[in-house]
């Protein structure tokens, strides 16, 4: 799991990087909110951070504003966010959670508590990823069932089928474009018998 740490205080940033990196996580750091958002925009795929520890008050974008942007941006809405703040007022903490933060740690923070909260976030990220995979598999299965249950018009003479665009096409091409079925050609016993009779009656 890659963790993005955004903290404008250099000493605190180094402590966070060393602590989380020493526990085995892949850590990338940013000195302010603008740099943090640029990292979210540039790091893609397997390199994308799935958990972020954001200082609430930073130059440029504050941690709470980054939370709002993440929740409003497709692809970032499931990043697990821990706000790092010296604020202890319940209204401030409620505002942070309302903006999209999943958790918060008050400064000065305890390293044991930091590890515990990040491990909770890691479990949530893994669960979320697993659920997203299951949902995608179910949607694919439902789409496949829907295709199988569709009424398929077929010509009684040439055996072509009518597709969704009202165009008649060969059964082979229809099936090949809508499923993983691989077709091989052969001759059934009845057709083989008919073909042989026709060949026997053909002139030499």
Distance from first to last alpha carbon: 77 Å
CATH topology call of the largest domain: Rossmann fold
Major sheet strand order: 2-1-3-4-5
**How large is the radius of gyration?**
30 Å
Structural class by sheet pairing and helices:
alpha/beta
CATH superfamily of the largest domain: Response regulator
Q: Figure out the total of helices.
A: 7
Global shape: rod-shaped
Number of DSSP strands? 7
Count of spatially separate domains = 2
Mean pLDDT: 85
Order of helices and strands: EHEHEHEHEHEEHH
CATH class of the largest domain: Alpha Beta
The CATH architecture name of the largest domain reads 3-Layer(aba) Sandwich
Into which percent range does the helicity of residues fall?
40-55%
Largest sheet: 5 strands, parallel
Name the beta content range: 5-15%
Low-confidence stretches: none
Overview in brief:
The chain is of the alpha/beta class.
Structural account:
With 204 residues, the protein is α/β, with parallel strands linked by helices. The protein has 7 helices and 7 strands, in the order E-H-E-H-E-H-E-H-E-H-E-E-H-H. It has helices spanning 10-22, 33-42, 63-72, 90-98, 111-149, 171-178, 189-201; strands at residues 2-6, 26-30, 51-55, 80-85, 103-106, 161-162, 168-169. It has a 5-stranded parallel sheet, with helices on both faces. A two-stranded antiparallel ribbon has the order 6-7. The longest helix is centred in the middle third of the chain and has 39 residues, at 111-149. The mean pLDDT is 85.
